[in-house]
Amino acid sequence: MSLTLAGLVCGEKGRVVNIVGGRGAVMKLMAMGIVPGKEVKVEGRRGGAMLISVNGTKFVIGRGLAMKVIVDVGKEG
Amino acid sequence: MVGLIYGILLLLCGILDVLNGNYANSFVSFTISAVFFKGFVVKRESYYVGGAILAFTFGLLSLMVFVSTYLDSFLNGETSAKFSYGIFGLLALPLLLTVKKKYSK
Amino acid sequence: MRVALVGNPNVGKTALINSLTGGNFTVGNFPGVTVEKKEGRALIDGKEVVFIDLPGVYSLQAKSLDEKVTRDFLVKEKPDLIVNVVNASNLERNLYLTLELTDFQIPMILVLNMVDMAERRGIKIDSKRLSEILGVPVVECVANRGLGIEDLKREILKGGKIPKRIGRSFEEKVRIAEKIARDVVVVRRRITLSETLDDVFMDKILGLPVFFTLMWMMFTFTFDVAKPLVDLIDLIFSNLVKLISSNNGLIFEVLASVVKGVGSVLVFLPNITFLFVALSILELSGYMPRAVYLLDSIMSKFKLQGRSIISMIMGFGCNVPAVLATRSIEDDRIRKATVLAIPFMSCSARLPIYVLFTEVFFPKSGNLVIMSLYLLGVSVGLVSALLFRTLIFKGEAEYIIELPHYMLPNLREVLMLTWNRVKHFLEKAGTIIVGMAVLLWFVTSYPSGNVENSYAGLIGKSIQPIFNPMGWDYKLVVALLTGFVAKEVVVETINLLHVNVAGMNPVQALSYIAFASLYIPCLATIAVIRGEMGFKWAIFSVFYTFSVAYLVSLAIIGVGGWLV
User: Fold this and answer.
1) Cα–Cα distance, C219 to C221 (Å, whole number)
2) Which of B47, B80, B87 to mutate to test the interface with C (most CBs of C within 10 A)?
3) Domain residues for B28?
4) pLDDT tens track for C325-336
5) How is C322-363 classified by DSSP, letter by letter?
6) CB spacing of A62 vs C93 below 8 angstroms
7) From CA C535, how far away is CA C521, in angstroms rounded?
8) B71 to chain C: closest CA residue
9) Bridge partners for C186 per DSSP
10) Domain A2-72 has CATH 2.30.30.90
């Protein structure tokens, strides 16, 4: 099942399948290591900000940008 | 168990500081005590680590404040000092050392 | 020989240039502290090497200002050697930038920094294999402890090697970086202290109280602990003035007023130093970006983002670097709103004003009054930002910030960072404030001997009617006027003009310090705002802050008069 990163709840994991949006946003996220195939875990949410960890690095990401990351939560089907 | 003991200790410091009209300092003590209590409830050591760091820092700070306000009053020809019960935060040192040893190996 | 240091944020680049040059650099632990280009010189085996520390970037696509600065430097200034600094704990992500750097075909050395921390986390890197793949020398370092620096110096003298060009397109480079990392990194992950700490500092409920706890401790440290030093300096200077004034003659008169003026500012040196020590510890420990997250829910209500808070907290030290630090905010609209809000952040130069007045009027609750002045500044700043974001700089923003690992800051780094900032204050004390002291002496002693009929008195009196509702003495108005040059000068003026501060009532005093805290930023701040946003906005900032300060102090008089 695919949804945006912003749609995950605290504690949930997902695998990045795609990054949508402008070339700028795509390159920024990918250069920071948020690349299709990587597993992302949501460690917390607070207001518009989400705390995520990818590859053992933690990031704070704004809601706007999190909407552009499509993840697969890997539930059956 | 450790968390409970330190939690109660800091809670006491906070209450004593309230009685002294030292509200901001008691807020600090209460916060640190809450950290220890949470650690005790959720059974996670990380809260003890964080609590120990905060408590020790606060104890050190209270000690420094005590010494320097005493020195200051001395310069002005008096003898008085600002005291906060937060100074007992220094008792978190043994906890801090145990934790440090555990993680540094 | 010119060597450029390039790397991601949080890789310890600045610590590296520090060890290489044994010199003066600001060191930071959160994204955005090294926004400006910094240079350092070192003699290695008798050969002069110039190091240029470029801003920390993730890529060179020239989207943000930092990336543009770095890219332009590499293209236009063509350094002789690139030292690519890489965080060993996170090779894969860092390698992407490395692959982009290979495109420039400039000789390169790869530095694997913070290998100790990586090892503690169970990460090992086969540096020999990495060196073969990239075709450049690879050196392992722990820059903040000076390990591996000699090896690096030796490689620098050898001049590095031109790297192989690896990968063409952006996507290809990302894939190759991933593959290389898989080849050379051996991981046996262990949980470290740093990771567990986030449980506490980022706790859902306790996170914010812990933040306020830290802020309060910073305040206590700045004021209470520094107190005896303040009084000591005061004692020294007042005796010095007595000694000088016991002589007769024009020279001694001027000298006494200079010493007095400089002294009245220097007494706050301990406060300022202690504040910077506390700020440096917070910065270096890696806590700052956490504060970004904790406060994001609050900041987003004001249409800013958590990242603005870093600049705003730095503003407590000095507004000038705070304005410069906004460069790390990618969204231009948020950046501009933040820049305009920063002048309301109460910088350390305004501290003397608060201390002077609270000691007279609120001797018991001084710390609390000062804390509320800081909060007043923050609230006015935030509300203004909301205003700007709704009316002028509209639009949704996007951001992502990396959280570095917690680090126990070492004393040397803290002191170095503090010294760099205090130095600026001392320079001001030696230049602007000495100059102002002489000028003040002149305008208060001529054309006639008493202050009342001097130039200063005349100017003060002609402006004073604007502040009639507040009932401030014309001398206090003169102090505000001179404070425009630098806020330390307000206190200097008050002392030199022998203002009877105790003659005010507490409400007047409060309205005065509130005004002094909020009104027009100092010249240096205006200059950087002009640099960042242009002349028009600098002027806007002057008028805006003045009006806000005026309204707030009028409100204090109104409410205070009604209460008392």
Assistant:
1) 5
2) B47
3) 2-104
4) 676 676 788 889
5) HHHHGGG---HHHHHHHHHHGGGS--GGGHHHHHHHHHHH-S
6) no
7) 14
8) C228
9) C124
10) yes
The number of folded domains in chain B is 1
Q: How far apart are CA B79 and CA B71, in angstroms?
A: 8
Q: Looking at this protein, which amino acid is placed at residue C203?
A: D
Predicted complex ipTM: 0.95
The tens digit of pLDDT for each residue in C460-477 reads 888 888 888 888 888 888
Judge whether A46 and C380 are in contact, CB under 8 Å. Answer: no
d(CA A26, CA A42): 20
Please work out, in degrees rounded to the nearest 5, the angle formed at the alpha carbon of residue A51 by the alpha carbons of A49 and A54: 135
Question: Distance between CA C271 and CA C363 in Å, rounded?
Answer: 17
Determine contact, residues C58/C97, Cβ cutoff 8 Å. yes
Q: What is the pLDDT of residues C501-559, one digit of tens each?
A: 788 888 889 999 999 999 988 877 887 788 778 889 999 999 999 999 999 999 999 99
CATH topology of domain C2-187: Rossmann fold (3.40.50)
CA distance C529 to C381: 15
Partner residue facing C292 (CB), from A33, A56, A60: A60
Query: Does the beta carbon of C150 lie under 8 angstroms from any beta carbon of chain B?
Result: no
Burial C479-511 (b: 16+ CB within 10 A, else e): bbbbbbbbbbbbbbbbbbbebebeebeebbbbb
Residue where the block lists tokens 């507040």:
C470
**Local confidence band at C111 (pLDDT 50, 70, 90 cut-offs):** very high
**Phi, psi angles (nearest 5°) of residue C562:** -75, -35
Q: Any idea what DSSP says for residue C75? A: I
CA C363, distance to chain mean position in Å, is 30
CB contact under 8 A, B71 and C221: no
In tens, the pLDDT along B59-79 reads 999 999 999 999 988 887 877
Residue-wise burial string across C18-37, b where 16 or more C-beta atoms lie within 10 A, e elsewhere: bbbbeeebbbbbbbbbbbee
Which of C63-72, C187-196, C351-360, C498-507 has the lowest average pLDDT? Answer: C187-196
For chains B and C, CB pairs below 8 A equal 83
Answer whether B touches A (≥3 Cβ pairs < 8 Å). no
Give me the residues paired with residue A19 across strands.
A69
Taking a C-beta distance cutoff of 8 angstroms, is the pair C312, C215 a contact?
no
Is there a contact between A28 and C93 if contact means CB atoms under 8 Å apart?
Answer: no
- H-helix or E-strand spanning residue C524: helix C523-533
Cα-atom radius of gyration of chain B, to the nearest Å? 15
Within 8 A of B27 by CB-CB distance, chain C residues are 209, 212-213, 216
- Closest Cα partner for B47 from C203, A58, C406? C203
Share of chain C above pLDDT 90, in %: 21
Q: Where are the domains of chain C?
A: 2-187
Instruction: Name the more confident of C317 and A19.
Output: A19
Q: How far is Cα C457 from Cα C474, in angstroms, rounded to an integer? A: 7
User: Is the minimum CB–CB distance between B90 and chain C shorter than 8 Å?
Assistant: no
Please report the residues numbered 191 through 220 in chain C whose beta carbons come closer than 8 angstroms to any beta carbon of chain A: 198, 202, 204
Pick the residue of C400, C401, C402, C403 with the most A CBs within 10 A to test the interface with A by mutation.
C400
Rounded CA separation C56/C85 (Å): 10
With an 8 Å Cβ cutoff, are B65 and C231 in contact? no
Q: Considering only residues 43 to 82 of chain B, which have any Cβ-Cβ distance to chain C shorter than 8 Å?
A: 44-47, 49-51, 53-54, 57-58, 61, 64-65, 68-69, 71-72, 74-76, 82
Query: What are phi and psi for residue B62, nearest 5 degrees?
Result: -60, -35
Q: Which residue of C has its CA nearest to B99?
A: C193
Please, which residues 224-243 of chain C have a Cβ atom closer than 8 Å to chain B? 224-228, 231-232, 235
Subunits next to B (3 or more Cβ pairs <8 Å) are C
3-state helix, strand, coil in chain C (%, to 5): 65, 10, 25
